[in-house]
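RECORD TYPE: inverse folding
INPUT: structure tokens
STRUCTURE:
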């Protein structure tokens, strides 16, 4: 991954002035900024140093727009999901629960309205930068659980990722358990009278599918890095 080019000094100055001018809004939505601007004694300080977060232009514009309007621009395409995921990570960093909830809802709505599912690259990015019990992680895992359950075969990149990343596989199983399916709606492998979901005359599990499922057009268009492990800790960018 290439190193990010440093932003010109004037851009940092403008961002600092802009964030200072929005101090009341920032403090209203964020305990992080409330502590930054006012400290534990709740007294404002005009001289207190404030480091400018290294934020890409896209997520920063979304961030400022949300502060003023409490609304997010609906994605035009799957490529717009990347900046939204970066914005979501900012919301966790700055302890802005309302912003985080709005981003999750926007991303969820886009996948639902377009009848598609989060691709592996998106899921890996969120897993690499969030902890357990994270709303965006739970939404994505729930969507992927449905996608894989309804697919006839597992796409190769998902097969490889699930073999390497046990936590993701376990979370998918947990998500399926939360569906609380009735026993009679699930095939019983112990019942010899049932086909148990297999094709006639077939023995063993289905093979990994060749190519991509038509259930996830957006996922099939993305470049998937199946070597990236799903683990906690900062990892790259959603772009």
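DESIGNED SEQUENCE:
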């Amino acid at each position: 991954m290439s190193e990010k080019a440093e932003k010109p000094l004037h851009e940092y100055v403008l961002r600092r002035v802009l964030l200072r001018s929005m101090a009341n809004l920032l403090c209203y939505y964020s305990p992080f900024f409330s502590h930054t601007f006012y400290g534990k004694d709740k007294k404002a300080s005009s001289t207190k140093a404030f480091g400018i977060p290294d934020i890409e232009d896209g997520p920063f514009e979304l961030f400022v727009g949300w502060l003023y309007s409490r609304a997010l621009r609906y994605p035009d395409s799957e490529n717009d999901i990347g900046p939204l995921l970066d914005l979501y990570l900012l919301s966790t960093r700055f302890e802005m629960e309302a912003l985080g909830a709005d981003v999750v809802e926007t991303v969820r709505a886009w996948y639902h309205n377009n009848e598609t599912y989060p691709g592996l690259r998106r899921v890996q990015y969120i897993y690499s930068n969030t902890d357990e019990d994270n709303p965006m992680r739970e939404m994505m895992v729930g969507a992927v659980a449905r996608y894989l359950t309804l697919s006839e075969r597992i796409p190769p990149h998902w097969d490889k990722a699930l073999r390497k990343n046990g936590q993701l596989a376990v979370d998918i199983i947990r998500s399926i358990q939360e569906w609380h399916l009735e026993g009679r709606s699930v095939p019983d492998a112990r019942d010899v009278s049932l086909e148990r979901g297999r094709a006639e005359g077939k023995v063993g599990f289905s093979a990994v599918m060749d190519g991509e499922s038509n259930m996830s057009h957006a996922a099939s268009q993305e470049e998937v890095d199946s070597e990236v492990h799903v683990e906690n800790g900062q990892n790259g960018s959603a772009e």
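NOTES: The CA atoms of residues 112 and 219 lie 13 Å apart.
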